[in-house]
């Protein structure tokens, strides 16, 4: 990298060139060589409001710091409110990383162990993306990450915000996570939510897989139905393989955790 630019807030795509990329907290960008990059476009001066509560739900700006989300106190009647803070606590992070990283940076890094990736998928977030030609699009979080460190962003496209719908925030939830050490990187992370009115149960499988997967049940499922859904929706090639766990280990714990979540949510 040879250059850095703080684009004007009213024209973030100003003078876009090949080799440009967005800079949020910089904790991933500055942690490894990226010789293909020429210039960083710093998002720290956008002036975007970090967190906005409305009747429709919660709007989180991509530039919202992880610590800001951690400090946010959700209204008590949001049943899934405590999950926001818990999600943030699932990072493996040094002091520097903890204090610099952003919600959008984590989503766009699109790593299997990305806690904001899990949060967005589990709460059925909608992501707003801005394109260089001035257009925008809204995409469901579950479709955003496509693999280990890959996503649907087109060249130059910018994640603007994360919308968590009120309906998701009002659902009961539970989670199960495994990592090799107490404060280690997640190697399996499952979150279940339950809409008590419709009885729908949604289990989000993440970290075990290269991208999050939804297992959705219109009523309370049986153990057999959950097991079948894992088999049908998570083919072997989707399980992540890295030093934190083999695909076989991740698959085994996915069955175990999904069943625990089913049992717990069925009683909620
Ligand atoms: C010690 C250490 C531990 C870590 N542990 C974890 C972990 O447990 N889990 C995990 O997921 N990651 C982890 N990481 C990787 C990384 O730090 C995090 O993913 C972090 O959340 C990235 O956020 P950031 O704001 O610093 O993003 P940046 O480093 O600034 O950017 C990350 C990527 O996203 C792009 N980007 C950023 N914002 C936007 C936007 N609004 N629109 C479009 N593109 C954008 C950037 O161009 C870049 O490609 C770790 C890194 C280190 C050094």
Describe this protein's structure:
With 268 residues, this protein is an alpha+beta fold. It folds into two domains: 1-170, Uridine Diphospho-n-acetylenolpyruvylglucosamine Reductase, domain 3 (2-Layer Sandwich); 172-266, 2-Layer Sandwich (Enolase-like, domain 1), CATH 3.30.390. It contains eight helices and 14 strands. The protein has helices at residues 66-71, 81-88, 95-100, 103-109, 115-122, 166-169, 223-233, 247-266, and strands at residues 3-5, 20-23, 39-42, 51-54, 57-61, 126-130, 136-140, 145-147, 150-151, 158-165, 172-178, 188-194, 201-206, 213-217. The strands form four sheets. It has a five-stranded antiparallel β-sheet. A hairpin with a 6-residue loop joins strand 12 (188-194) and strand 13. Helix 2 packs antiparallel against helix 5 and helix 7 packs antiparallel against helix 8. The radius of gyration is 19 Å and the shape is globular. The protein binds flavin-adenine dinucleotide (FAD). Flavin-adenine dinucleotide is lined by residues 21-29, 31, 43, 62, 91-94, 97, 100-102, 104-106, 108-109, 111, 113-114, 153, 158-159, 185.
Name its key features.
268 residues, alpha+beta, Uridine Diphospho-n-acetylenolpyruvylglucosamine Reductase, domain 3, Enolase-like, domain 1, 8 helices, 26% helix, binds flavin-adenine dinucleotide
Helix content percent band? 25-40%
Strand order of the largest sheet: 4-5-10-6-7
Tell me the number of structural domains. Answer: 2
H/E topology pattern: EEEEEHHHHHEEEEEHEEEEHH
Please report which band the strand proportion falls in: under 5%, 5-15%, 15-25%, 25-35%, 35-45% or over 45%.
Answer: 25-35%
CATH architecture of the largest domain: 2-Layer Sandwich
Low-confidence stretches: none
Give the overall silhouette: globular
What is the number of helices? 8
Mean pLDDT: 95
Bound molecules: flavin-adenine dinucleotide
* SS content category: alpha+beta
| Distance between the first and last residues' Cα | 52 Å
- Kindly report the CATH topology of the largest domain: Uridine Diphospho-n-acetylenolpyruvylglucosamine Reductase, domain 3
Work out the radius of gyration: 19 Å
């Amino acid at each position: 990298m040879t250059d850095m630019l703080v684009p004007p807030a009213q024209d973030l795509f100003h003078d876009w060139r090949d080799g440009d990329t967005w800079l949020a907290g910089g904790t991933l960008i500055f942690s490894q060589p990226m010789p293909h990059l020429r210039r960083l476009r710093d998002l720290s001066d956008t002036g975007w409001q970090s967190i906005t509560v409305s009747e429709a739900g919660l709007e989180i700006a991509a530039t919202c710091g992880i610590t800001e989300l951690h400090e946010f106190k959700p209204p008590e009647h949001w049943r899934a409110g405590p999950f926001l803070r818990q999600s943030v606590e699932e990072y493996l992070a040094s002091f520097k990383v903890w204090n610099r990283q952003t919600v959008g940076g984590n989503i766009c890094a699109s790593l299997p162990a990305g806690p904001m990736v899990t949060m967005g998928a589990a709460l059925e977030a909608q992501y707003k993306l801005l394109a260089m030609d001035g257009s925008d699009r809204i995409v469901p979080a579950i479709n955003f990450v496509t693999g280990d460190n890959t996503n649907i962003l087109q060249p130059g496209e910018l994640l603007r915000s994360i919308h968590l719908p009120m309906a998701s925030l009002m659902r009961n939830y539970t989670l199960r996570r495994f990592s090799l050490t107490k404060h280690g990187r997640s190697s399996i992370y499952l979150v279940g939510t339950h809409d008590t009115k419709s009885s729908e149960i949604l289990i989000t499988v993440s970290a075990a897989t290269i991208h999050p997967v939804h297992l959705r049940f219109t009523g309370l499922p049986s153990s057999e139905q959950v097991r079948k859904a894992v088999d049908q929706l998570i083919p072997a090639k989707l399980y992540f393989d890295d030093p934190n766990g083999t695909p076989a280990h991740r698959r085994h714990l996915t069955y175990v955790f999904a069943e625990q979540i089913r049992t717990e949510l069925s009683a909620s």
